[in-house]
Amino acid sequence: MNLNGTTFTVDDPDLVYADSLSHELAETIVDPQANLHNPEVCDPCAGNCNNLFLNCFTRAGEYLGTVQGANFDFAYDYFISAVVQPAFTHKCPAPEVSCAYWPLIWSGLGGPTLQQIAAANESNGSLDVFGLGKDGAVYLITNTAGAWSGWSSLLGTQLKQISVAPNADGRLQVFAAGGDGKLYSVWQTPPDNAWGQWENFAGENIRQVAALPDGNRILVVFALDKTGAISTISQTGVNGLWGNWTPLQGHALKQITAAVNSLGQLVVFALGGDGEVYFRLRDNAGMWAAPWTPIPGAKFSQIAVSQNGAGLVLFGTGADKAAWVNAQAANGGAWGAWSSLQGSQLKGVAAANDGGSLNLFALGGDNRAYLIAQTPPPNSAWGSWSGVGASELLDFQELTPIMDANLDLELFGLSSAGTVFQIFPHSQDGHA
Predict the structure, then answer these.
(1) Alpha-carbon distance 255 to 253, whole Å?
(2) Is residue 392 scored above 60 in pLDDT?
(3) Which of 38, 82, 101, 425 is the most exposed place for a label (fewest CB within 10 A)?
(4) Exposure letters 197-207 (e unless 16+ CB within 10 A, then b)
(5) Integer CA distances (angstroms), 196 to 171, 234, 271, in order
(6) Burial letters 310-343, b for 16+ CB under 10 A, else e
(7) Is the pTM of this model over 0.70?
(8) What does the DSSP assignment read for 285-299?
(9) Least confident among 19-33, 136-150, 401-415
């Protein structure tokens, strides 16, 4: 190994031996049999292919990031030669996204055959994952103190799409678009406990719903109908009864999402038939601004929203199949210009704030999960894309991130087979 020194613990800032040693050890561990089928798992990400990538860690095993060509611009305790993702074993060189990652392992949660998932935290610290079955019913699995329950059914008939939100008293509530175009709902009675019966909330021709608590912790539901118009219904008070449906108009809208800004104002976003993003804001007096206001500059096939310390942040899957971002310059302020986060052949994005920075997950054209993260303030620059976990055998159709009660960022993926997988994106041992 061209070792210059008497022990393997000697510092090696000039990479005399450390890179080569790590490289050969990794390949020996992956395939210890010396035969023609031995995969050279580091070559595509190494000097062999003029493509050197090194993955850096703290002494405790925390993954810090990846450098190319040994150009270290941050402190680290040790590095390893990058191991290529399995799909790129025979690429020389391999693309950065297949080298700049650490292979976390996805954990399967099993369950019935599902077509959509949602996640929410209970007030007692448990984490619930909901799934809409292909039979039109809703299913639930719960993690309490690190242990998962079995899947249970919340029933429901011919449901088409679901959204979950917490009441102010902690009761989780599921909302669903019914096969008959009505809104249906079921909730816990009391918090962290059993579930009641489904109730009909009326509505007309509903095909998509989005639910969330507003700045006063009053639940609000937005419904997108088959004509592309939006209506809303909300509780009349905290933990209260429900009022009447209010139309918010719109035409040929394709998708809805909503958030509360740092001023406590409710904002609903919609993807227009023209591919642009539109929004309406409800002020603290409960009045909706009109009409729908565009945020021009790019065309999208799907959108997502999150929040940072300076305001709301919008993300979109562009017509170019790359990821785009647009952030408010100040709390409740105007929107800036759309900026590309790159990415290739992306099918959808989902965002989450881990308490220090924004994380954007993307479903790639290969149906695998990818991540790009923003550095914490004041720098707030975006890093580069990396693969999430060892997923060569997985084929995702949906990604759902959530911050759990322990303030760990978790990511759930729904496979094309309709089963759920879990991973901790910033952890090296399966948990943060």
Answers:
(1) 6
(2) no
(3) 38
(4) ebeebebeebe
(5) 11, 19, 34
(6) ebbbbbbbbebebbbbbbbeeeeeebeebeebeb
(7) yes
(8) TSPBP-S-EEE-S--
(9) 19-33
